[in-house]
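Standup notes
- HV: blocked on the assembly model, inputs below
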Amino acid sequence: MAEQERTQRSSDRTGAKTDHDEIETAGSAEEIGERIDDLLDEIDTVLEENAEEFVKNYVQKGGQ
Amino acid sequence: MALRKVLGTETEFGITVLNQAGFNPVVASSAVVNAYAGNRSRIRWSFDEESPGRDLRGRGAVDSPTIDSDTALVNTVLTNGARFYVDHAHPEYSSPECTDPRSAALYDKAGEWVLVEAMATAQELLGPNERMVIHKNNTDGKGNSYGFHENYLIARSIPFDAIVTQLTAFFVTRQIFTGSGKVGSENGRPPVDYQITQRADFFEEEVGLETTLKRPIINTRDEPHADPARYRRLHVIIGDANRSEIQTFLKLGTTALVLDAIEDGALNDAIELADPVNDVWSVSHDPTLRYSMETVGHGRLTALEIQAEYLQVVREYARARGVDPIWVEVLDEWETILIDLERDPLSTADRLDWTAKLRVLEAYRTRDGLSWDHPKLRLLDLQYHDIDPRRGLYQRLVDRGAMRRLFNDEEIESAVAEPPEDTRAYFRGICVRRYPDELVAANWDSLVFDIGEETLKRVPMMEPLRGTRSLVATMLDASPTAATMIRALGGNDG
């Protein structure tokens, strides 16, 4: 809980929205595990289809 | 007393178009910038005061790179005072000048929103199966890196050697909270599964003028975009582009405070490293943060220990000098991040890109039994940085409440349109909005107007802290045209 309080305080100081802060810092290990599984499922739906081809073709020249 | 800091960021974005035969990054980048410029005014960039070949060490100018006239024309200046243009083969957003790290981080984030809108418009011109993808990252994973640069206005009077000796260890070790994370290594560095930063593998010199090869920890480009007798503008090329708002705030805020402390002589006893170039990638290659580096006279220290030393000195300096509350926030966030990184790096996954990304990658590895060289992990690494809010993994994490934010959407939306009020970016941005037809060219330190007379009228802005809302708003409000504004200025610096 100390972590949660600190996060909350920091957010108050910097004037950010605080409604998101509790989500990742509260809850049991099982709940956190479920949230991660849920997150991976969500990422699966947006991930580019052909990983190998996407990575292979991604070339960025001419940068500083 | 240290100068009031003027700071900003410059981001080169990665760009590709899927399913497009003959994809050309220069053409695609031009399409993005022109799409955004659209109905807004297309303002040429004036290169009068540009001198990327000038060296901060005072060794005289080397040959400046030639300006490619084709890409030099793909340029726009935004109503928020930023520059949005094509730099070689990348769209680049250079933020307006700001005076504090919160504002600078906000305008950096606003740049992402500019790119999202520009990409959506450019996408409409593509073929049915073609799709544009833009990343705010720094490497293609194949040895090609592109920059995220920070800039800080500092006093010309500080000896450059002092900057090099007092800042190098800070830059090498701040990576533990400035990194955006990367799968694997590049540029001939030893193999590694996952490392803290995108850029570390590309740094090969301690000090130098180069930005595209043999990149130096301290870049000496001497282009103050301001009165060169009074100012240097430290051009920092060693940072990663961050998606996390709090991370950009930390990176800019801690660096500005360290520069203040150097200017005021508080860091004269700063730790020096025996082999900083080797330490850059060695720190980055150890996500456990246990790597220790040889110092000059202090034995071996870890990045966390060196950062704690900088924090202590800078906190004492700030307390003695007295600083605005925003800088106390920087110090508090800095202290908290060091404590959390020491306790458990993954406990910072709500604030730092490299730990947020690592947590997702580890979860995938566990679920799917993937080895670190699996293409899917490389794809996840890339897609973390995708600016498309639907596809980018950073944004997915934010939307789930898994990452702390500094800004709400309304603030960012406002920063896309409105300039900061406390620098010359205010004058630039308001002129872009109010006199779009008469403003024909711009750069950081001047605007050029065509008011229908025989010669063009150039308004110099050599002082970054003038041209502010409090100094020019009344005059601008009373000037319906650029001609009346220039008469009101009477030829003086705004």
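- HV (later): unblocked. The first helix of chain B runs from residue 25 to 37. Confidence is low (pLDDT under 50) at residues 60-71 of chain B.
- Next: hand off to the docking folks.
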